[in-house]
Design goal:
single chain, alpha/beta, five-stranded mixed beta sheet, two-stranded antiparallel sheet, 23 helices, 60% helix, disordered N terminus
Length: 526
């Protein structure tokens, strides 16, 4: 059994540093049996508020010993650990809530009897109120209801959905959930089969427990190697109040980065002579996602090879358009004009091609960076109409709202993307986006905190300092602003204000002016 804790290092946000504590091998050392027993008790009965004396009795140690062991091995007391677990359970319940759910019901089910204290603790931990999380879930539910199932292309992976391991009484529920998972997979562009011989991957699942304490367990396995690629565990996910269609969409959204990574690793392992345009595009994807100069150059080499083999390869055309668009925006270009023109030509070509939600999200990103906002909005809307669980499309829709100047709408959309896939390779870009939205709203301290988090998660993307540096300066933190500018110039020693102006994405004019004035104030040359 594994227990997960979530902590926030220095700021409240929608993405957390997750510490996984495996009871068989916790981190770099095993947990004492007494701590494991206490954690097991908390996990088994999440709505109960345990006293330290009760936990100590179960653990067969004194209360003082249990306190000392929790502090030594987890850095927190048993009661703090219990509250953190309960808050995380409440958050997950709100993120999976059905249309009839209320914050009060969720709080009570997770053991919070005082609503005001629960709301305050939740806001301190997650940077928003419980009602904001629930409202965002309702918006998400509206977006994913009654979406079409899209037939995957021949290049998409085939997945076998195995029968669930269940008790007899859960047969109907398991069948409905399996149907919802198959539907969500289809929307995500994954072909589903019940024949193992046709499948590259196998998803299996089980439903454990009884009544309100049922747990859904899922895992994804590579059929050829037998390697587990992904696992999911939902606590209290099968209560009548839960909307299972939205639950399935969220599950598949969390699976997608892992499935994408497996496909990339498969392409990397193939002999060069066997690589087709789709496999070359997959190999290029991490470089495009890296948003740094080295990765961009590596990706473009692969993508040009893919386009030489097939000029109409959907994924290769969309990724190449995005990669060329990056070169001006992020100061990679040696010939900005010609490279931007190449990106625009590819993006317009991609508009005539068919693609799944991920490919459309990639294309929408390229169009956004190329200042084709109307086309980007159309493509991103189409991506979300196909798959409401596409985290990339939600994130890009957030950027569109930043460029339109609607900070609140942008933050909501970025948070949905982060809720869906917090461990995705591009999650840091949503953190940047939330920072930019706060900057547009004049919340410069918040802007700096969010973008500082993004820089720490992805330090090679030095372009983020273009907006982090001005945010620091506008809060009065001039030394931090100077350090930020120094970091930017370390990566781009010849950078000038003119190049920053030319490379900035289509932000509102007032935003652009603030950035340029701050950089000028700190000494960036004209």
């Amino acid at each position: 059994m594994s227990v997960q804790y979530t902590k926030i290092d220095f700021m409240p946000c929608g993405v957390f540093d997750v510490i996984s504590i495996d009871h068989s091998s916790a981190g770099n050392w095993p947990l004492p049996r007494s701590v494991r027993r206490a954690l097991d008790a908390m996990t088994a009965d999440p709505g109960r508020r345990w006293r330290v004396s009760e936990l100590a009795s179960l653990a067969d140690v004194s209360g003082r010993t249990l306190q000392r062991q929790f502090m030594s091995f987890l850095g927190k007391s048993p009661l703090v650990a219990q509250q953190e677990m309960a808050l995380e359970q409440a958050r997950q319940a709100l993120l999976k809530a059905g249309p009839r759910a209320t914050v009060a019901d969720v709080a009570q089910r997770c053991g919070f009897m005082h609503f005001g204290r629960f709301s305050a603790a939740y806001r301190r931990r997650y940077g928003e109120t419980p009602s904001s999380t629930l409202k965002r879930q309702i918006r998400f539910a509206e977006a994913v209801s009654k979406l079409p199932v899209v037939m995957p292309s021949r290049d998409q992976p085939m997945l076998m959905l195995a029968r669930f391991e269940i008790e007899a009484g859960d047969r109907a529920m398991a069948a409905h959930l399996a149907d919802d998972l198959a539907t969500a997979l289809g929307r995500a562009g994954v072909a589903v089969t019940h024949e193992a011989r046709f499948a590259r991957y196998r998803m299996s699942g089980s439903i454990r427990g009884e009544g309100a304490h049922r747990r859904l367990l899922l895992q994804l396995v590579d059929q050829e190697s037998g390697r587990q690629l992904w696992a999911h565990r939902s606590e209290d996910a099968l209560l009548p109040s839960m909307a299972h269609e939205q639950l399935a969409t969220r599950i598949i959204a969390s699976l997608q980065p892992n499935l994408r990574r497996a496909e990339i690793e498969r392409a990397r392992a193939m002999p060069e002579a066997a690589l087709g345009p789709h496999e070359l595009a997959l190999k290029a994807m991490p470089g495009v996602q890296s948003l740094d100069a080295e990765g961009n150059a590596r990706a473009l080499d692969l993508l040009e090879r893919a386009l030489a083999l097939d000029p109409d390869s959907q994924l290769a055309v969309a990724l190449a358009a995005w990669a060329y668009a990056q070169r001006t925006i992020y100061h990679f270009a040696s010939h900005p004009g010609s490279e931007q023109a190449r990106g625009l030509a590819l993006a317009r070509k991609a508009l005539s091609l068919q693609g799944d939600a991920t490919t459309l999200a990639v294309l929408g990103t390229a169009l956004t960076l190329l200042d084709e906002l109307d086309g980007a909005a159309h493509v991103i809307g189409k991506a979300l109409a196909i798959d409401g669980g596409c985290a990339w499309a939600w994130s890009r829709s957030g950027w569109l709202e930043v460029y339109r100047g609607d900070a609140d709408a942008a933050i909501e959309r970025f948070r949905i993307g982060l809720d869906l896939a917090p461990q995705d390779a591009l999650a840091f870009n949503s953190l940047v986006g939330i920072g930019c939205a706060h900057f547009k709203a004049g919340n410069y301290a918040e802007a700096a905190r969010w973008q500082q988090r993004a820089v720490l998660e992805h330090p090679s993307s030095a372009w983020m300092h273009r907006t982090l540096c001005p945010a620091y300066l506008l809060t009065g933190a001039r030394p931090a602003a100077q350090r930020s500018l120094d970091a930017l110039r370390a990566h781009h020693p010849d950078l000038t204000l003119a190049e920053v102006r030319r490379g900035m994405p289509p932000l509102p004019e007032s935003y652009r002016n603030l950035v340029l004035e701050a950089l000028s104030d700190l000494g960036l040359p004209q």
